[in-house]
Amino acid sequence: MSPPVGDITLPTKRSTLEIVRNQFEAWRKRRRCRTRIPEALWQAAAELSREHTIWEVSQVLRLNYNDLQRRVHRNRDGGLAVGQPSDLGFVRLDLGGAIASPECLVEMESPDGARMRMSFKGASREFDPAELSRVFWRQGR
After folding, report:
1. Burial 81-101 (b: 16+ CB within 10 A, else e)
2. Which of 7, 30, 54, 111 would suit a FRET pair with 90, their CA atoms being 20 to 30 Å apart?
3. For the whole model, what pTM was predicted?
4. What pLDDT band is residue 49 in, cutting at 50, 70 and 90?
């Protein structure tokens, strides 16, 4: 085992599923209600997927399968460190200064070909464009 970092002992790369399970259990006993899993434990869980299936690791460590799977695949496919947030698929807009007349056009197209176009002029608060977008992306699911 490697030296402790804070309250968590970082596992070595040769850690077994049992050692990491014991570390998760120890953390769960010490944690405050509803606190996030420390990055060191997520890293250890993701590393175990090299020797075990993601399903097996998620079951033994009592982790959400989809959360673990996303972390493992981001690490393998994207070259990102496990747990590092990905901003793939997002576009940051810097509008610089103030806009004289607020006007916005948003066009979306889903993989199945459905399209949505929203045009906003002025500062209307009668609807929520973010909620309209969420409804559009949830359609057909």
Report:
1. ebbeeeeeeeeeeeeeeeeee
2. 54
3. 0.45
4. confident
